[in-house]
Design goal:
This is Rpn family recombination-promoting nuclease/putative transposase. The chain has 14 helices and seven strands. The chain is of the alpha/beta class and 288 residues long.
């Protein structure tokens, strides 16, 4: 079962794809400025029974007029099977769309990030036919944002920093800076980034720190949906939050879909639906 923390790690790029360009520019890799982004299907299945599916796939339009595909994979641990899947993703995307693809792997621990960053060579050692170089973001290279004013200038990046460094000993300072920065936003936007942060932190100790901050430091968020959202482990509250987020984004939620959401008692499933509700293009995409 895919955890809600996994969902948040890649879905933040759908909410704010500019994080990709800004982060790698800070690392000295001059990607062109993003001017537009389109969300593409993540299904890379060719024939049954083999199914291959990315976490997030975006078509990025640049100021230079040279688009590229940004595929994002959230990786929680080492998985040897990915060493064969990732080259396939890149080759398939290039063949299907005719556009240069970039595969970004996001991790929450440095060991997994450094494992993912190793080049993948396909072919005999005497003549490798293909060498795959992934772009990797993790605790080893994502900026640590502990200054509230810095966080306020780029809240999506500060949110991603908080999620990525959730296991860092300095996590409390990072979360405090983000909580302070969220006070500069309107309530709806702040709730979205606040919930993305909580989902991304999963069941880590940092998640408990974040819930305390949201309950105390952000006491000005008092809408019914946000109070229910912060009720730990209550499926009823999370189900109502999914409906509320969809309605706040302007979607008409059919009665059948509303009943299905409210009847769900699995908090992991509800967490995934909530993460999808932030960026999905339809109610059907949330429940797919």
């Amino acid at each position: 079962m895919v955890k809600s923390s996994h969902e948040a790690m890649h879905r933040i790029f759908q909410k704010e794809p500019g994080i990709f360009t800004r982060t790698f520019r800070s690392l000295g890799i001059p990607f062109p400025e993003t001017v537009d982004v389109g969300v593409l299907t993540t299904d890379l299945t060719e024939t049954e029974p083999l199914e291959r599916r990315l976490d997030t796939l975006l078509r990025v339009e640049t100021a230079e007029g040279r688009p590229y595909l940004l595929a994002v994979e959230s990786q929680g641990r080492r998985d040897p099977a990915k060493r064969s899947s990732w080259p396939y993703y890149l080759a398939y995307l290039h063949a299907k769309y005719g556009i240069d693809p970039v595969l970004l792997v996001v991790c929450q621990d440095e060991a997994t990030a450094r494992w993912a960053a190793r080049p993948i060579r396909v072919g005999p050692p005497e003549w490798p036919s293909l060498t795959v170089r992934l772009m990797v973001l993790g605790p080893h290279n994502v900026p640590v944002v502990t200054d509230p004013s810095t966080a306020a200038r780029d809240i999506p990046l500060a949110t991603f920093s908080a999620i990525t460094h959730g296991k860092d000993p300095n996590a409390a300072a990072i979360l405090e800076a983000l909580a302070s920065a969220l006070k500069t936003l309107d309530e709806e936007t702040a709730v979205i980034f606040g919930e993305l942060t909580e989902l991304g932190l999963g069941d880590s100790p940092a998640a408990h720190i974040w819930r305390d901050l949201m309950a105390v430091d952000l006491s000005f968020f008092r809408s019914e949906s946000s109070q229910r959202l912060r009720a730990e482990g209550k499926a009823e509250g999370k189900a109502e939050a999914v409906v509320q987020v969809l309605e706040q984004r302007g979607f008409a939620v059919p009665e059948e879909a509303r009943d299905r959401i409210r009847a769900c008692a699995d908090t992991e499933v509800l967490g995934r639906w909530l993460a999808r509700a932030v960026t999905a293009s339809s109610v059907e995409d949330v429940l797919a």
